[in-house]
Amino acid sequence: MKFFSGRTESIPQPEISQQDKDKEAFDDYVSHLDLREEDLRKTILDVGSGKGRFAKYAKDHNINSEIYSADPNPPTKAGSKAVRALGEQLPFKDGQFDLVVSNASFPAVFINPKEIWDPFFKENNPAPLESRLKQALNEFLRVIKINGEVRLGRVQTEGKNKANKAIELIFSKILDELVAGGEIEMEKIPKEYMRARDFTDDPIKLKGDPDEVLMRLVLLKIKKLK
Ligand SMILES: C[S@@+](CC[C@H](N)C(=O)[O-])C[C@H]1O[C@@H](n2cnc3c(N)ncnc32)[C@H](O)[C@@H]1O
Predict the structure, then answer these.
(1) What is the average per-residue pLDDT within 100-105?
(2) Domain assignment of residue 167, yes or no
(3) How far away, in angstroms, is 110 Cα from ligand 1 center?
(4) What is the structure's pLDDT at 40?
(5) pLDDT (mean) for 47-67
(6) What's the number of domains the chain is made of?
(7) Helix/strand/coil (H/E/C) assignment for every residue in the chain
(8) For residue 204, which of 12, 7, 13 has the smallest C-alpha distance?
(9) Which residues contact 62 (CB under 8 A, 6 or more apart)?
(10) What range does the domain containing 29 cover?
(11) Is 69's C-beta closer than 6 angstroms to any atom of ligand 1?
C-alpha cells in the first residue's frame, strides 16, 4: 500500500471495490505486523485504525470478531467495536486486550510536523511532543494484560527530514527508559526501505533520483513485563 501517492487526474486508475480495499488493508496489517494465526485469535485493539478495515475484514471472514478500532476520525467500517478516540486517551479498561496494534500511525502521524520545525507551534503547544507520545504509549500498555504485546507497524526510521529525525530520537528515548525500568522488552524488525518513487507516481513531481532511500520502515514488538 502506498501513502501520499500523489496520483494525477490524467492517469486513469482502475476502480477498487470496498471488499478489495478491506482485503488490501488486512493483508498490509498481516505483513507489517507479522500477524500469525495465534495472534489473530487474540483480543485486539487497533489504534489509529483509519476506517477500521482491518477489523471489518477479520469479522466478515470469521477470522476474529473481537477486534476493536480507535481513531479520532470515526472508524466507520468497524461496526459496534469502533470508538472515536485519541491514542492518548483510550476509553478501555486496564488489561482489557491481549494485543494492541497500530499500523502506519504511531508515532509519526500522532504529531503535527510543525511542532518540530515551527518555533510558534513548539512554544505554544499545550502538551509537548515527548509527553504526548509517552502518554499514548502508556495508554497502549495500560489496556493490555501483563505479557501482552503492543505491535507498531510501519514505524519510520532512518528518515532524512528534520521531523522524522526528531520523532525517532524522542521515541527511542521513551522506549529506552521503559526498557531500563524493566517495564517492557522490545524487538525491532527491519522491513522495507521507502524510496522517493514510493511517494508519487507523477514523473513531474518526482525530481532527482527515484531510488533515493527516504526512510526505513520497521516493526516494533513491545512486550509488557509488569
Ligand atoms: C496513515 S493512517 C493509517 C490507517 C490504518 N492504520 C492503515 O494502516 O491503513 C493514520 C491514522 O492515524 C490516525 N491518528 C492521527 N492522530 C491520532 C491519535 N492521536 N490517536 C489515534 N489515531 C490517530 C489518523 O486519523 C489516521 O486514521
Answers:
(1) 97
(2) yes
(3) 7
(4) 98
(5) 96
(6) 1
(7) CCCCCCCCCCCCCCCCCHHHHHHHHHHHHHHHCCCCHHHHCCCEEEECCCCCHHHHHHHHCCCCCCEEEEECCCCCCCHHHEEECCCCCCCCCCCCEEEEEEECCCCHHHCCCHHHHCHHHHHHCCCCHHHHHHHHHHHHHHCEEEEEEEEEEEEEECCCCHHHHHHHHHHHHHHHHHHHCCCEEEEEEEEEEEEHHHHCCCCCCCCCCCCCEEEEEEEEEEEECC
(8) 7
(9) none
(10) 18-224
(11) no
The per-residue pLDDT of the chain, averaged, comes to 89
For residue 12, being part of any structural domain is answered with no
Residue 5 lies in a domain: no
Closest atom of ligand 1 relative to the 50 alpha carbon:
27
What strands, in cross-sheet order, belong to the sheet with 184-195?
82-84, 67-71, 44-47, 97-103, 144-157, 213-224, 184-195
Give me ligand 1 centre to Cα 88, in Å.
12
Reference 44, options 25, 29, 28, 24; nearest CA is: 29
Q: Tell me: the pLDDT tens digits for 140-187?
A: 999 999 999 999 999 999 998 888 898 999 999 999 999 999 999 999
- Higher-pLDDT residue of 166 and 90 is 90
Any domain includes 11? no
Query: 124: domain CATH number?
Result: 3.40.50.150
Spatial distance between the Cα atoms of 133 and 4, rounded to a whole number of angstroms: 23
Q: Whose CA is nearest to atom 8 of ligand 1?
A: 103
